[in-house]
Amino acid sequence: MLIRRRTYSNKIGIQDGQYQAAVANTRSNIYISEDFGLTWAARGTENYYNDIAISSTGKYQTAVGSSNYRSDDYGLTWNTLNVSSSMHGIAMSSTGQYQTCVTSTQIAYSSDYGVWWTTIDISDYNTIVSKVAMSSDGKYQSILSTGYSNGCVYKSDNYGVTWTKVNSTSSTFIDIAVSSSGQYQSIAAKSGNTVIIYKSSDYGVTWTTVSMQSYSTTLRGIDMSSNGQYQYLSAVIDNYSNIYKSSDYGNNWDINFVNTTNYISGIATSATGKYVDAVFANSSIGYIYNSNDYGVSHTSPVVSTNLSRIVINKLI
Length: 316
What we know:
316 residues, Methylamine Dehydrogenase, Chain H, 28 strands, mainly beta, four-stranded antiparallel sheet, globular, 0% helix
């Protein structure tokens, strides 16, 4: 069903990191924060959500999962997305105009703020698509695939219209982050018990690797600042939830935070890298790691459900 898009006034004085949104892959609402992640409100329709994306001002937001929804009023109200269900990942440009979401065998892209979508069948790629990320203008996009035995990357430099396979390895790809320009890209991956960061500094054309840890590891998410300098990785290692931080474009990584009682999931950062949020699960509540100083210190807001993915507005 197509729902006519309403127009809302733009808010004045919005800051980088101010708007944040989080979803859960268990049945729950969409959680929205308008105060840098300090307080949260449940909005939208209860659903099983896999991912969420947000524009640079927070005005446009899209959440995908067993059903898909979009908002053009800062997450206040949500309308059904005109695209097939069971989407795995979603990304949007800074303005919200360009959006791309993925299923196991399809890519869907929109150039009108998520109103209309064009679908590409990728079953011939012999791949299972999981995550997508894009530059702030939407021109450069990358999607991750687990494949049937390998991880691979497909890239687009024309707003998601066509795609080219550029990297294939025996590693398992978990998540991807792309800088504002599209030049810097990082993938969180595993090969056996070794954590590997795949890095590109040429818009995803060529890739190098940084090996980190060799433990029993579950990788959860990765994100970077707009210029690519600050990068954050969430992982569960030997039953400890860890946040890793890189301040040099992903070349070197240090443990920034360790938690022994909550199970970490998604992670996100603002345009500057100053604001960092990660979501944790603890029994029936969701614990949020919330930092406004590059991860030096943090507070711990709580919501009423376990969350799995989180995004922060990147306002340059």
